Amino acid sequence: MLMNLDIKRNQGLQTMSDLSMLEIQELLNEAQSFSNGKQWSAGKPVFAANLFFEPSTRTRFSFEVAEKKLGMELLQFDGETSSAKKGETLYDTVKTLEAIGADLVVIRHPEDQYYKELLPKVNIPIINAGDGCGQHPTQSLLDLLTIQQEFTDFNQLHIVICGDLRHSRVARSNAEVLTKLGAKVSISGPRSWMNGFEHMYPYVTMDEAVKIADVMMMLRIQHERHDGDISFSKEEYHQQYGLTIEHEKKMQPHSIILHPAPVNRDVEIADELVECSRSRIFKQMKNGVFVRMAVLKRALNH
Amino acid sequence: MLMNLDIKRNQGLQTMSDLSMLEIQELLNEAQSFSNGKQWSAGKPVFAANLFFEPSTRTRFSFEVAEKKLGMELLQFDGETSSAKKGETLYDTVKTLEAIGADLVVIRHPEDQYYKELLPKVNIPIINAGDGCGQHPTQSLLDLLTIQQEFTDFNQLHIVICGDLRHSRVARSNAEVLTKLGAKVSISGPRSWMNGFEHMYPYVTMDEAVKIADVMMMLRIQHERHDGDISFSKEEYHQQYGLTIEHEKKMQPHSIILHPAPVNRDVEIADELVECSRSRIFKQMKNGVFVRMAVLKRALNH
Amino acid sequence: MLMNLDIKRNQGLQTMSDLSMLEIQELLNEAQSFSNGKQWSAGKPVFAANLFFEPSTRTRFSFEVAEKKLGMELLQFDGETSSAKKGETLYDTVKTLEAIGADLVVIRHPEDQYYKELLPKVNIPIINAGDGCGQHPTQSLLDLLTIQQEFTDFNQLHIVICGDLRHSRVARSNAEVLTKLGAKVSISGPRSWMNGFEHMYPYVTMDEAVKIADVMMMLRIQHERHDGDISFSKEEYHQQYGLTIEHEKKMQPHSIILHPAPVNRDVEIADELVECSRSRIFKQMKNGVFVRMAVLKRALNH
User: Based on the domain organization, do C250 and C269 belong to the same domain?
Assistant: First the structure.
């Protein structure tokens, strides 16, 4: 009973493992309803505070559009023009926004699991919009929604996750959830970037990947998180680990391409393929709004 | 027929030459209606994305107020806190905003004709809020509206465009449109800043200008676009090419002063003249909101 | 009659001394009504322009929430992304926002009494959100509201103002108003930071302060306004002038702690005391919204 109340108190979302498979499916269903035109609003003024301590276009605007579509008021916190400059901690900033009237907070922060110190004492939902090299649950959900829209059922689907697995915020949780949903997951990319994934999922070369995959899940090279440890040129990466025009021709007719964007064009994916008929990259962005609407609605306990 | 559809698809505004004289007059009439208190809203949620890659106060807030008066939701993109920092191109940024739900984009960008690469593939209206040393069509329209409010008819009016014609985004289009409307255009300012204008329009000194002009259209010295090529002091510029207190006294009783602002006080115009009875500088700012309302309404095809 | 009209024209708020004791009480009553759930809106579109030339979290978001709760549209001016970068003066910026449609401006600026040059020529209310080492009237009002909520009556209350009195924007006005309201004010902190206060109010050590105070009004050390003139370490300051855990134990059972925040934890106040049962620090933030609603409503002459 107490635990239930506790959960009621803060229906935020920090990691995909916070969610049961049932809850994931409920969120995807809700997101699909929003995609189909469902309208919903809280019926009272709701203030959403967006705290972005790292640059972002997609995630930030996607949350903004989702919040506005749900009729919320926004408080836009930018690390550069706030008391964070006077040395205020994240904890004090969030408690301040709570005191001032924020009903929920959306946070992107460069520190892994920044939310751990917040959860015990913050009384409003915390929605994680990306923590360091940790998680990015709404990105995972929009990937799942995009696959589900395409194939209806995850069972027997073969998904190959390709590229910078080491710094990806979604590779691990996507692999875990997809496996639980009955899909087969393989991995591809530079061996030294596999980060332990190679012990759990089969490794395939890009040549093999394009032939077997129903979904090529390309990851962005997180240049800003590499410390000069990239030993190949962009061209070399593209030829060996990227999705080239030649690779795409070997894909199965029904297979699709995902990428969280921003794309490093001609590195992870050939420039011409970004908007090709197989690409669901812009569809992912569209879905991001609907997934976030579902997560925000859930945060308000409706 | 196809072309018509094409235009329908994207009723943005990039340059004044996109507009026929009839369309210009329609926009001025609509703007005047808004000035007179006309209310209008799209009747559905509209998301306007404002992308400013250069500092701006007047233009940015003017668009914001115009959008809010039309009931739009705003997405404020700031080049400094976005994935542009991760190296994302303007094209990918605009496509992202389109995917996320923007219904139109307003862009200021330091690159001339930045919109050329966008137009073929972006499906939402692009409204140019200033491109490099290129154009700034809503500024041109607000200049025209301010003159029309004063004199009703452009025919036989004498407008002298004064100052930094080389870097002005409005000098060329204003001169062209005003000439088509029947006005007489002359130019004044440093000879080396005339940028070819001297082959098309009569050059006059400031002493002559103030005597003949119905409208003194002063331009801002675009210091940020000069590469240390200014060979005179501010005081020298003011005395020789600026509108001094002595000059103002020689103007005709009915003549007015325009300036796009921000004014370099005591350079282009004597400090005391900025808010004198001849000055329409703040009137121009007010008109900017109404002109932008008209352009935004047109972008939604209403 | 003329003076009345003048006041009508600009019901802004720059310093606490602009307000009579009656007006202060009216504002506190109005704020308390908002705290109790009162709803109010202007009944017409109102544009509030927020100009922050210094970093701020609490004050900025507090005004934002207050404005949105009153149904206003916001224009967020940030010193870093505007024509201020082209060298535009504060005066020209404010006149621009007025021309574009702002109905009132809220300004934080590093310069003392920045508003002096604005008042004669700006026709919309100017609400001071902090000027240099000058004043911060809405902070003063929220301090007063928090004390009044606790003790109902100021008469005979003993308030000790502690710490960086030299750079505080509220110390002087709070001391003056509290004295007029019948409270007894003492001061504490480094002798060299007393800034003349020692000639008007009794000085007490922290050991004495905690025993006699009904309200410990702790001030933030304004590190950004000190020029390397701080001769003691944080630990030394805390032990000698800060509110330590040992000090708190000597406070009277009913006594409370105020601090404008952001707190330098373990400097002005021991970390553990920031959220202790005596602390009204987050209550102050909540009250900040209600006080600002009252000030904004007054600015619209309602």
Answer: yes
